[in-house]
Task: structure prediction
Amino acid sequence: MVSQNFMAKKSNLTPSFSYVQKVGIIGAGLMGLEIAALNARNHFSVQIFDSNSAMLRTVHKRLKEELADIEDENQLQEMLDLVETGTLEELADCDLIIEAVVEKFEVKAALYETFKPFLRPNMIFTTNTSTIPIEKLSEVFPLPRNFAGFHFLHPVWNRELVEVIPSTRTSEAVLQRLSDYSLSLEKTPLCVCDCPGFVVNRLLQPYLNEALDFLLKGVSMESIEKAAVNFGMTWGPLRIMDEIGFDTVMNAGKTMLNAYADRVKVSPILLTMVKKKMLGRKAGGGFYLWGKDWRENVHSHDFQPEGFNPAAQEVIDYWKKTDETKYSLNEIGHQLAMAMADEAERILNDDVVSEQGQVDMAAVIGLAFPESKRGPLAWKYREMEKK
Result:
């Protein structure tokens, strides 16, 4: 029986799987590239594949942008040399595969079938899915004992947490190797029970939904963002959506809707933004404008938006139900945080993690919930004590 709830630590176990030395990444989009850069920073050889040949051709150019903080030219070149592009067949000699393709079950299932001839008995295959249940994906994977969820958070370079999600058939040896590998990337691995959204996205989704609801109620974009920052968040929820990408937020939202229909909805604002190709930073505009040089700065860590997007305001004006802005900044910040805290309590009650500290830790180091407040549950319980 797989141990589902633990903060993974190094051990002296010596299972049949060797330590990870070469990593294969399937998907050269934003997340795939960020994961490749993380591996290069930590001296792992990387082979990356994408079915879009145009994406593969630009891998090293985009990777150089992602590693722009490396000032030593020799060190930078060494990191770039660690990353090669290749075919699916050439990924067959990798110790670990990280699949980072679009967040759609049918796309992932088709990929797993295509990759089947290249699987080896001691190869670990993981998916970076943020919401799709691992049990469901493992049912269509040829070697389910070698398969697990391995969810990096965006932006990968400054999110310490990585979620490790086993199915009922994932071997203990695979979990241990993923734990050791995570630590070698200077990430904190949290093993969680399998469920739609796992921990981090279950926490994030209601937070984002609350922000979209405030827009429908006539609260300004500026007020929502300012309220979140005043509360202690690094970014407001609208900036988070711009960074993640509206198409990714929408696909994740639909998966969550199927699982938690009683409390999850997909906002018409979000649907309209995706329809209009206003996908956020990676498209030059979402709730924010990212300037005429946005293409050259997609991978810049400190790049800032130019301001709110008038086109987004037009979408909001079309859908909003009232012009009233009767909420104070404190009330907005409180309601945003409480949406996350309420879900944190459900996560704990559902036994997705075994301890309150784990879900609070996931919010603090995974979503930049204010460390001074010690996590959404700790904050909520203190708020309740005040009443």
Notes: The first strand starts at residue 6 and ends at 7. The longest helix spans residues 329-349. Confidence is low (pLDDT under 50) at residues 1-16. Residues 138 and 146 are 9 Å apart (CA to CA).
